[in-house]
Prior knowledge:
The structure is a single chain. The protein has 13 helices and 15 strands. With 438 residues, the chain is α/β, with parallel strands linked by helices. It has a 9-stranded mixed β-sheet, with helices on one face. A 6-stranded parallel β-sheet has the order 3-2-1-4-5-6, with helices on both faces. The longest helix has 20 residues.
Amino acid sequence: MxxxxxxxxxxxxxxxLPGVSAKSYARIIGANERIKIGMMGVNARGLALANNYxxxxxxxxxxxxxxxxxxxxxxxxxxxxxxxxxPKAVPDFRKALENKExxxxxxAAPDHWHAPAAILAAKAGKHVYLEKPASHNPxxxxxxxxxxxxxxxxxxxGNQRRSWPxxxxxxxxxxxxxxxxxxxxxGWYTNNRESIGTGKAAAVPSWLNYDLWQGPAPxxxxxxxxxHYNWHWFWNWGxxxxxxxxxxxxxxxxxxxxxxxxxxxxxxxxxxxxxxDWETPDTQVITMEFGNKCSIAWEGxxxxxxxxxxxxxxxxxxxxxxxIVIDGNAYTIFDLKNKVVKDVKxxxxxxxxxxxxxxxxxxxxxxxxxxxxxxxxATLNADILSGHKSTLLCQLGNIALRSGSALNIDPATxxxxxxxxxQKFWKRDYQPGWEPKI
Length: 438
């Protein structure tokens, strides 16, 4: 797709964001125009995002793409009511990418589609808002980072906590030395998920394009306990709780501890609670060491919702002079005697166990940062390289668990060293003809 730059202002804007050329701003809107967005995947989280985007006065959703005709119709009706204009139903998002009016694509499809869809969007000259995780496997994540560099798209990952004001303030407390040198961080997610049972072979529903839903993933027969949410727990399409929810917490820990790639990763866990089709761990602990600097631990309990530090999901940083707990958009600072030194409350209602829309008003800040990156070349709060690094840490935990081995990691690249069994999980097999390419 060829683009034309309108005026010298666009050229000036294009030079403001490292890695983004003036050419990227070819579609940039005028002062009184709205950013035109296409939605991909609108059943659950995608529907919540669509509604949030539609509420932004500087945005217009112009297309909705979903393999489920019911989900698409529901989303179109909801968005139309909000923005007073009706987006077009384009079931195959690849067709939607051909629309020259589209500025950006929001990708909220299942995990196995994340990197391949974002790469296709970048190749089509679109900017991308990509839900976490950045990729299904490490090789895809690296391919996506390379695609961003090649096509100069603005790609914001849905690590929305990086745009939440009190979270930013908490991380600044850490970086400013409030609790001294920080050397250990722990994150967690807890829930009381029920069994998914044993699926039965069934005819593909009339409302579902199952072939497009599977997309790049090797084909598996349709079962009645797979779509829409339970795909998270199957390795062929999902990435387990570690990337479903752990990505958010590990990202905060990596941010606060100011680390990139680890030197050593271990993980333990399994599917313990129920005997059913669920393949990924329902109980998992991942530990990551970063040389002699610090370490990170993440605990996931999908089937026992007992909180940690009083929170169903959160992180805690331990330093020489105290600790800091981040819970949603709130944080508390403790001294070494466990006395509360500072307590900053949530400014918005947050429900960590809401599967689709736990913090809409706060997430709007992340959306606006994405828009600011598109329009003005502003620095993204969660650019795709940062998103890939946080995603990779969780992927390494899964690889350690699945390979039954401790991983030695090259801290310069994040790559696994001298472990053939683990290296097999670095990338995946693809359905022939669907392999992502840049």
